[in-house]
Amino acid sequence: MAASNGEKSLIVSFGEMLIDFVPTVSGVSLAEAPGFIKAPGGAPANVAIAVSRLGGRAAFVGKLGDDEFGHMLAGILKQNGVSAEGINFDTGARTALAFVTLRSDGEREFMFYRNPSADMLLRPDELNLDLIKSAKVFHYGSISLIVEPCRSAHLKAMEVAKEAGALLSYDPNLRLPLWPSKEEAKKQILSIWDKAEVIKVSDDELMFLTGSDNVDDETALSLWHDNLKLLLVTLGEKGCKYYTKSFHGSVDPFHVNTVDTTGAGDSFVGALLSNIVDDSTILEEEARLREVLRFANACGAITTTKKGAIPALPTVSEVQTLLIGN
């Protein structure tokens, strides 16, 4: 559904929101960490806030615990201009927690507390269908596919969004410790692969899903399907690759002082979606798409310069400063 009266179109992000506990110092194990800082996280929520911070219109659909952390997270969404109309609260389960180890190179390792957490218990009958139907872009990951009833809620939300004319955007956001096995993760991530029109994977996810040791064009294009309009492979500090029906190429990275890579991919996705939500013809014009991806690379780079995802997500003015300087 398109926006009217000059209002920006809505991007709805579906899935999990949780608390990351991040060590106060980098490069130590969880056991060695002297303390932890709590940081709101969860990839779909990060994307929604990234969109809002860049001036877009975003809503989040998911379930939180009816506890202090759950209400804190809902409050953070609202403070960041994201609609919380799609949030449900579960009185019987807690908000998910994750302890995150920051290695000395800024990469992360995770230990999750979800047994079960509230996000896993979202039911199809709890979905705010009117909100989902109003989305011009509907974005999701794969963590919501791991268990029922959330898996059925995810599939229902996708179906409703698609029927209402939304562009479907998918970032698998692989977190292997949450899956029963590597085989199940691959099977379920690929089970909805052919529904999405925009898919973003990291280089590691590309290798996991294809079984290849290469991050080349042939490997990436093995994931192509007929409904796709854009396939993106993010390469961390090496930028990104893009593939459409008509053209493909790569966009160079921005070199920054990386502190924490948490949320960089979500920032990249939010930047892309906020730029194409009101003009999807960008996906058909390579020069314009490259400009958008350069902007998205800048957003991802800036996000790595601070600890935590949401505090590090940039504004348009911060991105423009980096673009002008490069």
From TrEMBL:
**Reaction catalysis annotation:** D-fructose + ATP = D-fructose 6-phosphate + ADP + H(+)
PROSITE patterns in the cross-refs? PFKB_KINASES_1, PFKB_KINASES_2
The membrane-spanning stretches of this chain are none
- EC nos: 2.7.1.4
- Top-level lineage group: Eukaryota
Mind listing the GO biological process terms from this record?
A: fructose metabolic process
First-tier enzyme category under EC:
transferase
Q: Name one GO cellular component term.
A: cytoplasm
Any one Gene Ontology molecular-function term assigned to this protein's record:
ATP binding
Keywords of this protein's UniProt record, alphabetized? ATP-binding, Carbohydrate metabolism, Kinase, Nucleotide-binding, Transferase
Domain Carbohydrate kinase PfkB: residue ranges: 9-315
Question: What Pfam families does its record include?
Answer: PfkB (PF00294)
Give the record's pathway: Glycan biosynthesis; starch biosynthesis
The UniProt entry's sequence similarity note says: Belongs to the carbohydrate kinase PfkB family.
The protein's job, in short, is:
May play an important role in maintaining the flux of carbon towards starch formation.
> Cross-referenced PANTHER family, in alphabetical order?
FRUCTOKINASE-4-RELATED (PTHR43085:SF24), HEXOKINASE FAMILY MEMBER (PTHR43085)
Protein name as catalogued: fructokinase
- Species assigned in the record: Brassica napus (Rape)
